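User: I'm new to structure prediction. If I give you an amino acid sequence, what do you actually give back? Let's try with this one:
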Amino acid sequence: MCSFHDPEENISTVQLNSELRHAQLELVSAHCATHQLRLRYSADDLARFGHRDVLRKSTEAATALYEFYRSVSRRVFEAPEPGPALVPGDDQIAQGVAWLSGYLRQQRDHYFPVATPLAGPQRAAMSPYFPPSCLERIRVVELDGHRVAVPEFFAEARAFGFESLPDLPHMESLTFIDVVAFNERISERALFHALVHVVQIQVLGLDRYAELWIRGFLKTRAHFTVPLEVHAFSLSSRFLRPVAETFSVEDHVLHWAAADRY
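Assistant: Good question. You get back a string of structure tokens that encode the predicted 3D arrangement of the chain. For your 262 residues, that looks like this:
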């Protein structure tokens, strides 16, 4: 792969976009954590009971990030105002579930022949969090410069008015039931996140998982605020904390499923 090098600015666009994607993933994690906080507590609760220093630092960081990205946005494009929330009928929801579950099955069968079991160090890193049966069954594949293709049904979905569909070719990884395809190199964070989805599918069943994902997307209109994704990001953040903390992902998924949080 070649990188364009600007002799005047001394910038590698490959390096720039790699760092931009990394920052974007960190922002998504922060967005998910904040979204989960917002679901549980009101602004008044946070203002009354939150530690003032933490609130101040959080506000300053969010404001600085907003101002920076807003200045970039002005140079590139102005985002349109969001339209009214979509209210699909039962037939459209059923079609969306069929599209998603069928796509996951098809991609699983497509990648399985070239996927491999987890390497020893990967299994060791994941074993405190996932049951042995899950780690034995999972298969992974690095696409090595290739990308997961945009699903054919996306064009039909956009015709229904869904414009904020996930950008699959630029996501770190995608979970296809028990096969995980990595657009980039495998990282522990991306692997952990993908394995949370493996457990969710195992606990919920593929069709129920697809239905909850579709309903969550229709409600929030962004894939990273779908409850299934919020939970995966939340558990991944716990996994990455500086102080080691072990926990059962399966227990957390079972708890969320029983509490109807998905």
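You can read the tokens as a compact description of the fold. Here is one thing that stands out. Residues 5-76 form one domain.
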